[in-house]
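Q: Sequence in, structure out?
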Amino acid sequence: MSDEPPVEGWPGESAQRLEKASALRERGIDPYPNRFVGKESLAALRAEHGDKTFDELESLARDVRIAGRVMTLRPQGKVSFATLSDGEGTLQVYVRQDDLGEEAYRLLDLVDRGDFIGVSGRLMRTRKGELSVQAKELSFLSKALLPPPEKWHGLADVEARYRQRYVDLMANPDVRRAFVARSAMVQEIRRFLDERGYIEVETPMMQPVPGGALARPFKTHHNALGMDLFLRIAPELYLKRLVAGGMEKVYEINRNFRNEGVSSMHNPEFTMLEFYTAYFDCRDVMAITEELIASAAARVWQGKPGAYLDRTTNEERALSITAPFKRVRMQDAVAELGEREGWGLGKGVLEDPEAILRWAEGNPRPARLAPGSPRGDSFAAAVSPKLFAALPPHARMPHLFDTLVQPTIWEPTFIVDYPVEVSPLAKKKDGDPRVADRFELFMAGMEVANGFSELNDPLEQRDRFVEQLKQRERGDLEAHVMDDDYIRALGHGLPPTGGCGVGIDRLAMVLTDSPSIRDVILFPHMRPEGGRR
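A: Exactly. Output:
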C-alpha cells in the first residue's frame, strides 16, 4: 500500500499522518477496522448522567463504550485528555498510563485531531468537575489523513463550507442542528398529510414533456429508447393524472430541476411538496396549507416564538406562523404599498394601462418614504421603465408585485387573484374571468407556496397550452409546452380538485433562520473550484 498522499495538493501534514498510519500497521493495528460494537450516544450519556456528582458516579460504576472523532487531544505526561464528538454530542476521555499500560498508552502518540477512536471505560467526574470516561481500552477506528479546520472553527469561508459540507458539519454544530430541524419539519409534513388520508406517491423524474410549471428544463437523452427526456420541473401533471384515476388525496416530496440562475433563494435542484385533493377548491387548499405550515413551524420551534433574518435590514425579526394567514388581492397589495410610500401608484393608476405605463416611464424616486420602508428611494426605482414597457399587459401587475411588494411581506400572507395568463393550469375565478382562482403564500420576503383550483376542462386546458405555445414562439422559453397525454387524462374526467406546492427548502430557511437556500441544502450546486469547467 502506497504511503503517498492519495490526492495531489494535500497539505504536508498528510505525509506525517500517513507515517502514523504505517506505524499502526507495523504494530499489527488496522487503522480502518470494519466495526465497533456497542457504541452509546454521547448526547444520551450526557443527558442521563450530566447532573450526577462525583460520588454518585463512583457509586453507579457505569461502564460504557463510546466512539467518535477526536476534537482535542492534550497529553500531560502519563495522563492525557481527549474530547470526542459523535455529531450529536461531545464527551471528554480521561486516559492514564496506569490504566492502559505503557505500550497501549503510547498509541496516543499516533492519534491526531480528526481521527476516530473507540473507548471502553467507566463514567467519572474529574477534579475540575468535567463528566468524562476513564479509559480502560482504546481502539483505532479511522485515521484522518487530512487535518481538520484550525481549532475546529476555522472553516469560515462560506464557499468552502458549501463545497466541503463534511468539514462544515464537523466544525460548525449549528449546521447539523439546521439539518436536523429540516428533517423534523419534513417528518411533521408527512405526519400531517398521512393522518388526513393522503397517499404518498412517486412520479417520474425524467419526463418526455416538461410540464407543471413555467420554467426552463434540463435535457438529457435515453440511448436505449432513442429519445430525449427532461428532468422534471414539477410533478403536478402526473399527480393530477392520479387524481383522475381515482386517488383522491395524493402528495409527493421530491426533487425538481430548473435550468435557472443561482441565488440566495434559488438552486437548480430543489425539494418540493405537492399535494392534491379531489373536491377541494382554492379556499380549501389555503385552509389546509396554513394549518400544515403552522404545524411544521410548531414542530421545529417547539412552541417558542420564531425569528428570521430580514435581508432588507440584515437584522433578525420576530416571525409568527399561526393560522389564519392574511389574504390580500395582488392589485390591492401593490396599491396599498404604493400609496403608503407616496409613489403615486394607487388603484386609479393600476387600473389604467396607459397611466401605469406613464408611471413606469417616470420611474419616481420619492423624496421621503414612510417609516420602515425597506429599501429607501431606490425601492420604487427598481422598476425598469424599458423592461416594464416590453412586458405584455398581463405580466405588468405580477412584475410590480414581485419587484415592489414581495420583499416587504413579513408575516405569512396569501396573495390572491393572479392574471389568468400567468396561471395556465388554474381555473378562472367565479365572477371574474380575468383572474385565476389561485394563491401564492409569502413570508419573510419570499414565496413559500403556490396553489389553485385545478383547471379540469380538457378543451380549455388545450386552448391554454396553445396560447403558451404562441408565447414560446415569441421567445418565452419558460412558457408551457403542449402535453397531449395530460389532455387525454383530463378527457377521462378530473373531479373538482385543489392543489398546492410548498417549497421545502425555503420553508426550511424560515424555520431554521438561514439566510441562504444553500444553508438548508446539504450539497448545493457550485461553480467548479478555481473557475475550472
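Residues 365-378 have pLDDT under 50 and may be disordered.
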